[in-house]
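Example 9 (inverse folding). The structure is encoded as follows.
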């Protein structure tokens, strides 16, 4: 039995960048900063930041690019994958990425005008189908409407 699963919670370091592959598949890349606080050997508190490269594919990529912006707190779950390539100088390069299967916003969506988010609206009656993005109140927490 094998397992390749990673889970992180952190803040987006930049706005997601979406593109399409030649066959039309959406792919979005973004970075997430994860902080760790610890005491060093002298008992002094230190903070360490680890940066993760995240890649989302398909509908998850499109919705991630649409709803997330730099600074948002997110939960990302997926698998780790290392890619390698040769740069223009012939040097072999490597990068390890978290290939996302789930991306969940953990903070309220900011308003376009930068003001406070309005009070949440009541949820519409459920028809069993996921709500359209406009049905989510600005204070809604949790998974993006995928």
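The amino acid assigned to each position is listed next.
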């Amino acid at each position: 039995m094998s397992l390749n699963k990673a889970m992180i919670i952190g803040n987006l370091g930049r706005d997601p960048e979406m593109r399409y592959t030649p066959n039309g598949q959406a792919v979005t890349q973004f970075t997430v900063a994860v902080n760790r606080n610890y005491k060093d050997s002298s008992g002094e508190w230190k903070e360490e930041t680890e940066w993760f490269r995240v890649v989302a594919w398909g509908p998850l990529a499109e919705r991630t690019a649409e709803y997330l912006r730099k600074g948002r707190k997110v939960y990302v779950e997926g698998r780790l994958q290392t890619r390698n390539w040769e740069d223009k100088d012939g040097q072999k390069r490597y990068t390890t990425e978290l290939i996302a299967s789930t991306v969940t916003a953990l903070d309220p969506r900011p308003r376009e005008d930068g003001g406070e988010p309005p009070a949440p609206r009541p949820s519409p009656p459920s028809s069993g189908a996921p709500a359209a993005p406009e049905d989510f109140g600005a204070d809604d927490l949790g998974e993006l409407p995928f």
